[in-house]
Design a protein that fits this description.
about 300 residues, alpha/beta, Spore Coat Polysaccharide Biosynthesis Protein SpsA, Chain A, 2 domains, ten-stranded mixed sheet, 10 helices, globular, disordered C terminus, Nucleotide-diphossugar_trans, Glycosyl transferase family 2, Glycosyltransf_2, transferase
Amino acid sequence: MTPRSAEITPPSASVCIPLFQKRDYIARTIDSVLEQTFTDFELVVLDNASTDGSSEIVDGYDDPRVRVVRHTETVPMIANFNAAVAATRAPLVKVLNADDLVEPEALERQVEVMDAEPDVAVVSSRHHLVDDRDRIVARDRTLRTPDLIGRQDRATVVRRVVRHGGNPLGVPGNMLFRRSAFDQVGGFPTDDDSFVLDVALAVRLTTTGDFYGLPQTLSRFRLASGSESGSDRRHHLRAQRAFVRGLRRDHADVVRCQDTARGLARWPLTWLRHHVLMSAASDPDGRAHRLAARVLAPGGCRDDRHA
């Protein structure tokens, strides 16, 4: 990896974008970061040897906040995410997928929390789900229960994930974490599936400090057309179930029988929502897109607060 440029004084926050073959989205992602109301940040783009023209788009940015790092050969996804964080220089870090977006006030609101709460390791928020055209498919996802809003300890976070059966904590773009905590836990866990790397990291970070949930929606997670095949969907769901089983085993000191029972009872709903989501991504103008807007709306099907 070879850095294109470097500044002398470290910024307060870093946003890093692990980039691979996202020509159609990367400009929108970078623009959303550069429009932040909080200005003391760097944007590190780690290009994982893209060959689709993404690199040329990134090179077109003439902004001192943007720093590009490149792999000469493509590395596995989780290794690329860890390398992206390793390339940052700030004490606070946000990892943003190369096709996702952040709202203008995302860094400002989350840095405020981290400055005020020194024992918090990671702060997260809600997100909208958007399609290829940036149209909102579902609003205000994740952190849908009162016990994930505000400052929460490891036990509360682990129990909620077990009861949810998926990821109630947020996607990478939702989160801002302390680089020291990330380093302490060894980064994104390489022994977990890439489909659960976000929730796996968040749980890991709670072993070093508390979790803080913001009720605001501060990012947009993209459901790109064709992002998952049928086999990928089954793999994703298997990965979720395996991760939750691991939580029950590794955190037996805090997981209660009622948490496990509720998670198992909720699994059909988790499957249904995931199926509707991926169907909407594959058919953005059709019936599945409209169904997703209804089923995934707050209160649609069944609200997370009852899980």
